[in-house]
Amino acid sequence: MNTSLSNAECVSSPDQHVTAVITHQVKAGRQDGYEEWIKGISAVAREFAGHLGVSILRPQPGSSLDYVIVLQFATCDHLTAWLGSDIRNTWIERVKPLIQEQENIQVLSGLESWFQLPKQQNSQAPKRYKQAILIWVGVMIVSLGVSPLIAPLLSFLPWLLKIAVNVAITVALLSYVIMPRLTQWFKGWLFAN
Known about the structure:
The protein is globular, with a radius of gyration of 18 Å. The chain contains 6 helices and 4 strands; from the N terminus they run βαββααβααα. It has a 4-stranded antiparallel sheet, with helices on both faces. With 193 residues, it is an alpha+beta fold.
C-alpha cells in the first residue's frame, strides 16, 4: 500500500496549506478496531512538523462504512513527509486487516478543498451560486453560534484586533470543521447537474 505522493500530485505555493482527504472503507464488524486505530494514528500525526489539524467524518447509519480523514498540513513538503514516513507506513500496515481496499488519498490546496469529496477527483467543481450559498450557511453558523460565545472573551481588545481575531476563528472553523461537514451533508444538491 504505497501512499506516498509525487511532487506533481502535491503542488501549492510555499505559504499555502494543503489538505489530504483519505478514505478508508472499513470491513463490517471492524469499526471498533478502526476507531482505536484512528485515535492512535491521529495522535502520531499531530506530532509531525507542519500538522495543522485532523477531522474525521464517520459514516452515517445505514450507509457504507466509508470513513473520511481530512488532514491539514502547512505545506506540500510537510504532507509528503508525513505520508511517506516510516511511522505512518507502520500504522498503515496495522489497518490493512480492518479495511476492504487500498486507501484513497486526494490532495487539495486552497478553497477548493471546501467543495471536494473523496472519490470525486475528476468531477467538476459545484456551480458558484451553490458554493456561495453553502459558504453563507457556514458563516451564519459561526456568526450565530460561535461569535456570541467568544465576544465576552475578546471584549478587552481594541476594535480592529477584536475583528481580526473573530475573523481568524471564523476562517479556521470554516476550513477545518464546518465546510467539510456541510459539503458532505449537502453533496447530493451541491454536485447535482
